[in-house]
Design goal:
This protein is mostly beta strands. Helix content is about 5%, strand content about 50%. The protein has helices at about 80-90, 220-225, 230, and strands at about 1-5, 10, 15-20, 35-45, 50-55, 60-70, 95-105, 115-125, 125-135, 140-145, 145-155, 160-165, 170, 175-180, 185-190, 195-200, 205-210, 215-220, 240, 245-250, 255-260, 265. The strands form six sheets. Strands 2-1-7-8-9-6-3 form a seven-stranded antiparallel β-sheet, with helices on one face. The protein has a five-stranded antiparallel β-sheet with strand order 11-21-14-17-18. The protein has a four-stranded antiparallel β-sheet with strand order 12-20-15-16, with no helix packed on it. The radius of gyration is 24 Å and the shape is elongated. About 25% of the residues are buried. Residues about 25-35 have low confidence and may be disordered.
Length: about 270
């Protein structure tokens, strides 16, 4: 059971409100996951078997619920117009913010989403009993984490492994930080996908930052900034998630410290 949530760095309970369902029948309900897949197929003219040509997600994750004043903290359950406007301003925004429900058992939820709310007032006559919220995320699924991993590679051609945690099969492009110990070129190869990140002309104590999701590379070394665009091969570190095996092994040519951050995909409904 969830009574509270966090959105845009504030909690619903900060306003003296709780999550609820107003005028709904008790019983078993389907929980929407948002990850409905459309299979585009072509039929073999000689049989009834259809082959998949492509797949797409039909929609993004959405959930709907109501909020009202916490009856344990306020004797008057009706909300004023100013309270409603304050909450609507917080929730109904033209940008995506982080949304995470708060578990009443552990006080935290492992899953979060990015999105925004559409809001309707729930009224009895001219009195506002609560707000009906429809949350729409920017993706068909949620995320957990992020996972922060660090590897000290003190020899040439050292290896490290990542056992990826994700409910979605495919490739994740993480955020990577590489701290060089000596002047050297560096190559990081994923032996599973056979892709290699190559950065030449690196300097001792230089920190190279690679944002795989947004395809951005940068360095804190002023001398390397002018040549970095030519020293990079524009391959980004990848993490492959497969049905049976999500262990990725990487070989690193130079001595360095590698830090990797990524958010595993979670296909679960939270409300």
């Amino acid at each position: 059971m969830y009574f509270d949530f966090e959105y845009a760095d504030k909690r619903l309970s900060d306003f003296g409100f709780i999550m609820c369902h107003i005028n709904t029948d008790a019983g078993i309900n389907d929980v929407e996951l948002g990850c409905d897949i459309t299979f585009n197929t072509v039929k073999n003219s000689n049989s009834s078997i259809q082959s998949i040509t492509s797949t797409t997600y039909d929609n993004v994750y959405t959930t709907e619920f109501e909020i009202m004043k916490n009856p344990c903290k306020d004797g008057d359950i009706y909300m004023s117009s100013s309270e409603a406007r304050h909450l609507i301003k917080w929730l109904n925004r033209r940008e995506y913010a982080k949304f995470k429900v708060i578990n009443d058992i552990s006080d935290e939820s492992d899953v979060y989403y990015y999105g925004s709310f559409n809001v309707k007032q729930v009224q009895i006559g001219d009195k506002i009993l609560g707000l009906n919220l429809t949350f729409t995320a920017n993706a068909p699924y949620g995320f957990s984490g992020p996972n922060h991993l660090k590897f000290m590679l003190l020899k040439y051609n050292n290896t490290f492994e990542i056992d990826a945690e994700s409910d979605e099969v495919g490739i994740i492009y993480p955020t990577v930080s590489i701290k060089m110990f000596y002047d050297n070129d560096i190559t990081i190869t994923n032996t599973v996908t056979q892709t290699s990140v190559v950065v030449k002309g690196c300097k001792a104590n230089e920190i190279i930052m690679i944002d795989g999701e947004n395809k951005i590379i940068s360095t804190d070394n002023d001398k390397h900034k002018s040549t970095l665009q030519n020293d990079f091969n524009y391959e980004y570190l990848d993490i492959l998630i497969d049905y049976d095996n999500s262990v990725n092994t990487y070989t690193v040519s130079a001595q360095c410290e590698v830090s990797i951050s990524y958010s595993p995909i979670r296909k679960v409904g939270v409300i």
